[in-house]
Design brief:
The complex is a heterotrimer of chains A (80), B (750) and C (181). Chain A is an alpha+beta fold and 80 residues long. Chain A is 29% helix and 25% strand. The longest helix of chain A has 11 residues. Among the domains of chain B are: 154 residues, Aldehyde Oxidoreductase, domain 4, CATH 3.30.365.10; 278 residues, Aldehyde oxidase/xanthine dehydrogenase, molybdopterin binding domain (Aldehyde Oxidoreductase, domain 4). In chain B, strands 3-5-1-12-9-10-11 form a 7-stranded mixed sheet, with helices on both faces. In chain B, strands 7-15-14-13-8-27 form a 6-stranded mixed sheet, sandwiched between helices. In chain B, strands 16-24-25-26 form a 4-stranded mixed sheet, sandwiched between helices. In chain B, a hairpin with a 5-residue loop joins strand 13 and strand 14. Chain C is globular, with a radius of gyration of 16 Å. Chain C has 2 domains: 76 residues, Roll (Ubiquitin-like (UB roll)); 80 residues, Orthogonal Bundle (DNA polymerase, domain 1). Chain C is α+β, with helices and mostly antiparallel strands and 181 residues long. Classes of the chains: A alpha+beta (80), B alpha+beta (750), C alpha+beta (181). Chains B and C meet through helix 1 and helix 18 of B and helix 2, helix 3, helix 4 and helix 5 of C.
Chain lengths: 80, 750, 181
Amino acid sequence: MKVALTGPIRDALGGLASIEIEADTIRELMQRLEDRYPALAPLLDAGIAVAINGEIFRDRWGEVIPRHAEVVLMPRIPGG
Amino acid sequence: MSHDASFTNQKFKVIGTRVPRPDGIDKVTGRARYGADATAPGQLVGMILRSPHAHADIRKIDTSAAEALPGVKAVITSADLPDKVGGRRDMLDILENCMARGRALYDGHAVAAVAAIDAETAKRALKLIKVDYKPLAHVTDVDEAMRDDAPIVQPWVRTAGGDPNKPTNVAQISQFGHGDLDAGFAEADVIIERSYKTEQTHQGYIEPHACLASVGPDGQGELWVTTQGHYTFRTQCAALLGMEVAKLKVTSSEIGGGFGGKTHVWMEPVALALSRKANRPVKLVLTREETFRGTGPTCSTSIDIKIGARRDGRITAALATLRYQDGAFPGIWGMLGAMTAWACYDLPNVKSVAYDVLVNRPKVAAYRAPSAPMAAFAVESTVDLVARELGMDPVDFRLLNAAKEGTRASYGPTYGPIGIGPTLEAVKNHPQMKVKLGPNQGRGMACGFWFNFGGQTCSTVNIGVDGTVNVSVGTVDVGGSRASLSLIAAEELGVPYESVKCTVADTATLGHNDTTEGSRGTFSSGMAIIFACRNAVQELRARAAKMMDVPVEDVHWENGQAVALGTQHSNLQPLTLAQIARKSPQTGGPIAGHNEVVADGAGVSFASHICDVEVDPETGQTRVLRYAVIQDAGKAIHPDYVEGQFQGAAAQGIGWALNEEYIYGKDGRLQNPGFLDYRIPVCSDLPFIDTQILEIPNPGHPYGIRGVGETSIVPPLAAIGNAVSNAVGVRMTHVPMSPPRILGAIKAAR
Amino acid sequence: MAGVHVSTTINGDPVEFVCQPGEVLLDVLRNRIGLTGAKEGCGTGDCGACSVTVDGRLVCACLVLGAEVEGRSVTTVEGLASGGELHPLQRKFIEHAALQCGICTPGFLVAAKALLDRNASPSEEEIRYALAGNLCRCTGYDKIVRAVQAAASELATDATRKSGKASGSKSGRKSTKKQVA
């Protein structure tokens, strides 16, 4: 599936707008990102967010990624 | 048990009613206990010595005279706060901000602290501490800090992807967007470019930071503190002091306002370290001046905007370059500005580039929808200019370009159902839009966006033997959330609101809860309470089945009662929650439900504001005549407190737009660290603030709740900027639009 | 430094305390008497969170010395309710959701009561200027002004009803005088 990259995650991979990667869950996605893109390690360690069809997830490993879903990696957002 | 968080569009009985808040009487009688209102036997008074320099090497700190003063029980410096976090940079930054480590990085940076038997002795002890400073060159302006010859704030900082050998003040560059910008601008009939500046503001909570810390020689400790997140404070304090998490109990006091400023630890680790050294409880309360100089304001910024549009009113390309200063430590505040800048619009070609920049100012903290108001000021001001250039009504122009369900947001994902369009329609139909304006008066409107989020949450529901209900939550109640959360428990269990008592639990009582930030309090604790109540209902059904001697599958929960369904049970009377509770000692003991959840699925929120002002052309003084807030709440659980959030956020934005700013002298020192010179809006400055709550359900919450607390601080800077610009006939590009700035702009245009 | 012995009346009760000559009334109330309802938001008279009345006059307790209240009568937020009955301002603040975090509420209540004691039916503008010395960062003042208006109107109704029975008595003022005396 296509995973879109934004912000610091895109910059860490030299400006790539998206990557192809297969994963059924958020946990699989994280593991494969870590294996394939060592440059992402510090960002993944600090924590990122995954938007699946527009819904933003932070720590829910078990969340299933549906086929043909829109997947976007984005920074975590704090609030005030 | 796992539960479905999807919106179900159920009919509500008590949700949406305006009930009295449960902590009301305590707060109108002076009984409520805030950060500074606690005492402990044998407590000492803690005080902090702060740097008078914007930037200085600390060559030596001599504490011997202070230590020798009778009544002084502990004196600490950074030597008493060694690195216990293994060099982890983000944690070390927090520690270094709590107490300077060899270098003072801003005016007001803590350099030493004392604990003494009373305030007089502590003050005298501070004067006896001798600090040998070597002043260094400093920089406090964001644009100056980016120049090649600027003094370097943090020698270890390198821009990611930049020259690894070159120290810099640019801690991070972040880019967001999609499409082809060049093609988009080539397609445009009209292109407008403008640059903007916004000055630094403070959250300005009326309660300064305060805590009471107690640590024993056995490593056990307690902390009573005014905070938005006592679990986060526990985690951070324990890590910084090398304590075990379970042995540090943190209790959140009533909190006298936070707005993001109480999401970070500031002096709490210092109070704990003083207590540990003295082996006595230490109460540490900051003064207002310390709160301004030493705790996190939001960023000052410098922003460039470029928008291209076709004659038919469609925006073809949009570019934002944002420079945010983070104070003396790296942050992500510019990045958030870049993510939020264009979120209101449906744009084919869009880009934002953010620079997070270090300066010699206090460490920036979150401030209500952090970073979004400044970006919105720049974007929404330029949007008005483009509409004018096209000869279009500014509301119609925004409606034509507004994001909607299916729009790809400028920060990446695609929107579900959202409320920007409906808020703009409401603006068009608002009676204020038809009020005729007089001389020197102007009307402006603007839109705003905030993400909201959920995060880790847990809650416990305990049913009392008399059928009343205790709800324990871990999200701090800053603005009345205990009322909303009690309503949710009452709704789920089918009991009266008055039967529910909601308490914010200490860290020893519940599992970790993320901080009350990101407008998550009612969204996330509401979700955990719904699920905890549903678990309790399962147990209530089981107990009722025992009482009725029927299989549990036959027992249903309806309107707060257990009902045995089926003709064979038609002789059985329903059992109320109170009846089941009364027999709980015989049917298996106490009845409870609990839930632990990562409350993802927060719904984004949009607002549109309308503002009418009158500007005195002689003095440059602006008066807000009328103000209206329209915001999507998803679902308003307690409408009074939703309106209160809208009004309070608007008032903070009005202060930011017109008056509030940190003023630094050439010496790098803050010149106005007090409410007299840092002037927040007072009662006579403001009109009544009209509110309109829209309810576009969030599909990711059972009740459709979105966060409501933050979004409405985003539009005011731009709404007022547009109104003032329309009143004086000159585009305002610098916030705050204080009288001298307005007069200056009028003069420059002549 | 030698302490100063002070005899005074606080919320109608006789109170004696010893304080330092330079100690402000706010610290005396909070640290010596145990009345923590008045809050310190600034310590410089800018925020009004420590509003109390001394002989009926509204002051910032952070700008008055403890020693200055010798022989006077101090009223704090803790003295507004009579027994189990809340003052109408207190009730209206709850009913109108005029507080969020609540840290400024004690000061606003004391200041609003001082206003209504001298002007039983203030206009919106009079309310806004009378409360301009009290900062609130949560509410935008909207619901606070409405709560004060509602309390004023209730007190006026009460006064009319009572004056119908016993002519000449103004209940709002009378109750204040009792506390001051």
